[in-house]
Design brief:
This protein has 183 residues and is α+β, with helices and mostly antiparallel strands. 23% of the residues lie in helices and 31% in strands. A six-stranded antiparallel beta sheet has the order 1-2-3-4-6-5. A hairpin with a 2-residue loop joins strand 3 and strand 4. The radius of gyration is 20 Å and the shape is globular.
């Protein structure tokens, strides 16, 4: 028969486990910790759905932009016309090269040279309203190839939002580039 001290420890352990479970369950995504730190999903190329790609011919963001999302996002968007909480959008930028092929001259293709990744996590419940990389319904992150475990964005309004202003009325996402969202 357990002592009253052992019973108390067991109860404290159960309450702690339940509290941690609730906290983890209430987070907007498995890629977000309780402080609001966003991580780059390592296996996203095989565990997510490719939404589409963009090609930017010149400038700092030149190259191919492959965009991915987690399971369920497309179905939810088609049904409700908005992104569900927990939706994860990952944009991978790769350098490009152009060559002449039998299919045409100056054909562009992506290379193995990774430039950076952008990650957005939908959070309409404002879990992290005091965190400067969270706002306008999303968590915002930028990862560089030299350290893909560190979010280098420090303030989404400065580091991220500028590129998304034209897509403000589409929940900050350029949905026209992803025909898969259309019914």
């Amino acid at each position: 028969m357990p002592t009253s001290k052992a019973k108390s420890l067991l109860v404290i352990g159960l309450v702690s486990s339940i509290s941690i479970g609730v906290l983890a369950k209430d987070l907007p995504s498995e890629y977000v910790d309780k402080e609001g730190n966003i991580t780059l999903p390592i296996d996203f190329r095989t565990s997510t759905i490719h939404l589409g790609s963009w090609f930017v011919p010149t400038g700092d963001a030149s190259g191919f932009h492959g965009v991915y999302t987690n399971q369920g996002t497309i179905e939810h968007y088609r049904k409700y016309g908005k992104f569900p909480d927990g939706a994860v959008i990952i944009k991978e930028l790769r350098a490009s090269n152009s060559e002449d092929y039998t299919t045409g001259k100056n054909v562009s293709h992506e290379t193995g040279n990774l430039k950076q990744w952008f990650v957005m996590v939908k959070d309409s419940k404002k879990h992290f309203s005091n965190n400067p990389v969270w706002g306008d319904g999303w968590g915002w992150a930028l990862f560089k190839p030299d350290n893909p475990t560190k979010n280098v964005a420090t303030d989404y309004k400065v580091d991220c939002l500028g590129c998304h202003i034209p897509a403000k009325d589409k929940d900050w996402i350029y949905t026209e580039g992803y025909p898969v969202f259309q019914k």
